[in-house]
Amino acid sequence: MKKYNYAQKILHKLILSNGFVNKALFEIEKIFFLPSNIKQITNNKHIFITSLPRSGTTAILNFIYENDKYGSLTYGDMPFVMSPNLYSKFKIHEKLKNKERMHKDGLFFNLATPEAFDEIFFSLYKNVNTKLLQNDFLKYISLILKYSNKDHYLSKNNYNYKRINLIKNIFPSSIFISPFRNPLQHAISLLNQHNNFKNLQNADKFVLDYMNFLKHYEFGNNHRPWFKSIKYHDLNSINYWLEQWFLFYSNLIENNKH
């Protein structure tokens, strides 16, 4: 994101920050590219990786994606994540250059690296009835699978922990993966990334804008807690992140006992 030129930044802002534009692109995508047999994918074993960030979700995503069985959007599909088939007719295929993530954690990516952007989809469906949400999510995944020429979807979305039951209702045979780490080590990693992204966002406002575009509120100046803090409210304290770790996994276990 730091390497985007001025025109690319404007395009990302125009597309990703505008719900009306995204919805319009999705409607066009459905009209011209929606498969006629979308219900055929409902019982496929799609994989949804969802957990706290810094738990290894990206490494798992990359590992599974390498076997070439699963379809997912990639960084090369930005910013037209709601219309990948339409965009594929016009986009210029650039050379793939590996870059280290802004997390500075030794993980590299390029335009062919998978990254599920379905949080952008869900942000467009905040105030709709469940049936419409489920129907259009099925259509969205069908379109991504058509675009990638695969039968199984692969998602890494750390916010899907709160939608496991909803997604199960659409794709009952799906597999959900929620990795976890030693709580203290995990909390230290969360705090370090929070400080890292604060520094990046203070140095370059587009980094903050970009995280908001993608609905990523895990770290930095736009951080939002996963659960309301009970005892610890200072984001610069390790206790805040430890409490979030406890609340997150307690909730995950409690709501998914069956």
Q: In words, what does this structure look like?
A:
This protein is α/β, with parallel strands linked by helices. The protein is built from ten helices and six strands. It has a four-stranded parallel beta sheet with strand order 2-5-1-6. Strands 3-4 form a two-stranded antiparallel sheet. A hairpin with a 7-residue loop joins strand 3 (99-100) and strand 4. The longest helix is centred in the C-terminal third of the chain and has 21 residues, at 183-203. It starts with 5 loop residues before the first helix and ends with a helix.
Keywords:
alpha/beta; four-stranded parallel β-sheet; two-stranded antiparallel ribbon; 10 helices
Task: Write a short abstract of this structure.
The protein is an alpha/beta fold and 258 residues long. Helix content is 46%, strand content 7%.
Helix content: 40-55%
**What's the Cα radius of gyration?**
18 Å
Strand composition percent: 5-15%
Per DSSP, the total helix count is 10
Mean residue pLDDT: 93
Uncertain runs are: none
Q: What general outline do the C-alpha atoms trace?
A: globular
The biggest beta sheet is recorded as:
4 strands, parallel
> How many β-strand stretches?
6
Distance between the termini: 40 Å
> What structural class should be given to the helix and strand makeup?
alpha/beta
User: Element order, helices and strands?
Assistant: HHEHEHEEHHEHEHHH
- Described by its quaternary structure, the protein is single chain
Order the strands across the largest sheet as they lie in space: 2-5-1-6
